[in-house]
Amino acid sequence: MESLLIKNKNIFIADSGNHRIVEWKYNAEEGQIIAGGNGQGNQTNQLNYSSAVIVDQQNHSIIIADRWNRRVIQLLNQTQHILIENIDCYGLTMDKNGFLYVSDWIKGEVRRWKMGEYNNEGIIVAGGNGRGNQLNQLNDPTFIFVDEDQSVYVSDRNNHRVMKWKKDATEGIVVAGGNGEGGNLNQLSFPTGVVVDDLGQIYVTDNGNHRVMRWCEGKEEGEIVVGGNGQGNQSNQFNNPGSLSFDDEGNLYVADIFTYRIQKFEVIL
């Protein structure tokens, strides 16, 4: 279970190990498979460790990072179409203008495509200077978030930091972590999911520390929002949390990878 997305109180889950996308309707007893679910493979009805899913509101299609098949696909009218091939995709997001952003965890970069125009290389909007730890580099970028100003936030996983690349910037700034791997409040350990709220507060799943952190840009350290009580399966614990998402009411949902569950929290601002 890699990523999750909340739309109209419905939960979309990239159920990576089962090679499928599952939608849980609001208050449903069980989910329904909307993509994949036909075993691991590269056929048009199969997925291979898909890592992210988003919904394109314009045409009500589903867009999926089909990671081990190295392709981004679109599910429209129950048919899978390949949008982008030969890309080591991990995270996906879309901005208010309909641009699609994809992180490439092997090349260490994020690229942007104009909606409907996928027959090109896309434009690099973060990284793109090889894998590394300089401000113009990324090392295993995973999930991404784009704000109203088209600034790109990237979980720079192996650098244990979250980077913010402003529109047209040639290098990023560290907005969370960046002080080596560790469990102090100014550190992260393999950060994964990242979301920024309307107040500009950065929420990040601190995977190796089994907690969700909140950072205000410019602050020296973050604060623990949920978790941080050791590795486990209690309601106040995580076991390698992955992606996270907010619903319209400000509730926080976290995909907890090794307890195979999604937890919902009311966040105190």
Automatic annotation (TrEMBL):
Protein name (record): NHL repeat containing protein
Family annotation (CDD domains): NHL (cd05819)
Species assigned in the record: Adineta steineri
Alphabetical keyword list: Glycoprotein, Repeat, Signal
Claim: Nuclease is one of the keywords in the record: no
NHL repeat placement: 131-168, 182-212
